[in-house]
Amino acid sequence: MATENETAVAELPTEKDGQGAASAPAASLEPPSTDSKMENEQSYPTGVRLFMIGFGLCLAVICSNLDRSILGVATPQITTEFNSLGDIGWYGSAYLLTSCCSQMFFGKVYAHFNAKWIFLSALAIFEIGSILCAAAPDSDYLIVGRAVAGLGATGISTGALLIISRSMPVSRRPKYTAMIGAAMGVTLVIAPFLGGVLTDRVTWRWCFWINLPLGGVTLLITLFLVHIPQESGQNEAVSWSQFAQKMDLVGNTILLPCLVCLLLALQWGGTTYAWNSWRCILLLCIFAVLFLVWAYAEARGGDNSTVPRRLLKMRSILAATWFAFCLFGMLFVQTYYVPVYFQVAAGDSAYQAGIKMLATTAAMTVFFPITGVLTTATGYYVPSMIAGSVVSAVASGLMIRFGVNTSTASWAVALVLAGMGFGLGGQQCMMVPQTILEGDDIALGTSVIMFAETLSGSVFLAVCENVFETRLIRELEFRAPNADPAYVIASGASGLRAAMSQLYDVQTVDNIIESFVAALQPVWTVAVVLAALSVLGSLATEWVSVKGNDRKDGMVKQDKSSVEDGPSNETAAA
């Protein structure tokens, strides 16, 4: 059995090469492919069914992204109830570790198995994790639940985009991809506000119980309305060695501890332990060694690699990955530190800071669908990516001017522009793999870009945390020399003025507040740099129209078969 499968796999590239080598056979084989595509288009869901599929996928994405950032405002009550102040870091790290480390593996799974059932499995894993968190009797159970939920959330985000690519022609995907993007972006911004409401008015456990009804609706919609035809090669009988090779088990086994070491070093460095401590140095050294081993294994793996070389050779995939890494890194920085600014400078509660963040949420909600419509109308997503980078850079630049007495108009304009910038470009990078790739490569390309998005949050939040604390200590030594920096930092941003007023005079308290605001300046600078660097990714992305599956498929096939002959290309496109 294994020999027969290997023979079949070995013969497939030869047939493709044959098509590319001679223009006449390629032209003769093109019409059946076009007819097949037309038949698939006729079977795409429409009307109410299509709307319900989009609605269900948005609910799933809302669940997974709520879980990513809703816990921050609930953490004080959790640590009080469980007496677990030392576990604060693990509530976020456990989720982040499993989410980031499983991203590439899910790309391989989606590439080789039916997307519908993998998506439902990921949703089930996520809901189990939510139940473990909501019903946790102690801190250890909560950490385990967060790890399980992070694993499922990765499969949900990737699967939602892949189901869209299987449910409609490429020319109609921008609008629905924008819906998913709106759900992602808006949820990340509104999660702290919702978490504060649930924690203050009900209980922190409802931050997790809320996922059950939302996920249940998605499960029913996906189960009964989503129908993804079986693709050739899926679920075929293969030997264990072939399965391990297809799934790149060796590469993923190496990648898992590699990322764990990197993320733990970023989480601990400069906060739990000093950067020059033996723990951080050891973790970074192990990461470097494992990364080199993984890169070598991927280079030897060929087309079965988690990140095939054919994707790394495609300029648009690399550009979109860089764009996502920078723009999402900027979003994470702003989403985390803008509420800190409001709580310190204006003395707002978490709830009040969340209300002000609605300016960003509203702008995202407006510009995500506008961008989807514009991309559908023009056929090009690159202009929106460029505009998103530029507007985001302007918004981040305005945040550098945030001070203790910044007017409402000033911060409102900055937040609206931030939402507008991300609404314009945040989800357009996901159109790149859906437009220039086909078949299994869509899943792999999507997972690479989403991996960059996930990793950017952990990297740049860790960078900004270290930059912020280092600058804060320096500012406190200069502005408020009689204040204890360790105590000030441990007090946190919420209710800072009230806490400091119990120990220091009014002038010292004012100086402490000014120190906090000044310490945020390098954080905003990081956001500006990230937004500016994202422009490079948008400019490097090739201008490919989403209009017409026939054009897209012809382009991909020509690329795969290395057809460089002008007349042959025209014949194949016809």
Automatic annotation (TrEMBL):
Keywords recorded for this protein, A-Z: Membrane, Transmembrane, Transmembrane helix
Locate the Major facilitator superfamily (MFS) profile domain: which residues?
A: 53-549
- State the PROSITE patterns in the record: MFS
Q: Does the keyword Chaperone apply?
A: no
Q: Which CDD domains match?
A: MFS_Azr1_MDR_like
User: Which residue ranges traverse the bilayer?
Assistant: 47-68, 88-106, 118-137, 143-164, 176-196, 208-228, 249-270, 276-297, 317-337, 357-382, 402-422, 524-545
Output the Gene Ontology terms for molecular function. Answer: transmembrane transporter activity
- Where is the segment annotated Disordered? 1-41, 552-574
Q: Which InterPro entries match?
A: MFS, MFS_dom, MFS_trans_sf
Report the subcellular localization: Membrane
Q: Give start-end of the signal peptide.
A: none
Compositional bias per record (Low complexity), positions renumbered to this chain: 21-33
- What is the first-listed, main subcellular location in coarse terms? membrane
Basic and acidic residues: bias regions:
552-563
One GO cellular component term = plasma membrane
Instruction: Specify the protein's topology with respect to the membrane.
Output: Multi-pass membrane protein
The name this protein goes by in its record: MFS general substrate transporter
From which organism does this entry originate?
Chaetomidium leptoderma
